[in-house]
Amino acid sequence: MSDLILYTNPMSRGRIARWALEEVGAHYEVRVMNYADTMKSDDYMSINPMGKVPAIEHKGKIVTECAAICAYLGDAFPDAGLAPALADRADYYRWLFFAAGPVEHAVTNNSAGFVPQAEQGRMFGYGNYDQTIDVLESAVSRYDYIAGDAFTMADVYVGAQVIWGNQFGSIPKRDAFTAYAGRLTSRDAYRRANELDDALMETNQLA
What we know:
Distance between the termini: 26 Å
Mean pLDDT: 96
Shape: globular
Number of helices: 8
Low-confidence stretches: none
Strand order of the largest sheet: 2-1-3-4
Radius of gyration: 17 Å
CATH topology of the largest domain: Glutathione S-transferase Yfyf (Class Pi), Chain A, domain 2
Oligomer: single chain
C-alpha cells in the first residue's frame, strides 16, 4: 500500500489534486469515490466529514481542500521545486488563496445566478464578480506564471480555475486567460493527469 492516497472522482475538483500529484512525481494510490454511495459512506466521512472529494492521505495525515492540497504537496515534495523559497512566497500565497477565496466564490455565485446588490459588496470577500475577474486577469498578465517566471503549485490551482472557467463559460475568454491556460495545458503533467482521469471516466460507474 502506498503512503500517499488520492481520494477522487474524475468528474470533480479531484482533477486538480491529480494534476498536483503528477507535477510532484510521487507514487500514489487512487481510490475512486462515487457520488451515490462511497463518498457518503461512514469510512469516507471519517476522512472528509464534508463528504466531498478530493482528499489526500499522506503518511497517515489527511489533507482536504484543493488549495491546501496544492500547498501541502509543494512543501512535502521539495525536490520537485514547485514551492518558492520562503522569502519569495508572497505572490505564491497571495494568488493561491485569492483563487481559493474571491475567485471561487465569485464564479460559483455568478454561475448560480446570485449577484449581490452594490451595497452588499462589502459583505463578500470578492466584492463583485467583474472586479474579481479583472484582478485575476491582471494577475495572470504580469509574468508567465502566477508567482513569477517559474511554474509553481499556485499555478495548478489558479490555472485550474482559469482553464475550467474558460471551458465552461464561467470566466470570460480574454486574451490573457487564453495565453496563461495555453502555457499550463502544454505541460506533460497536466496532460498525463487528464489522460488518467479520462480513462477512469470510461471504465467506472461514477454517479
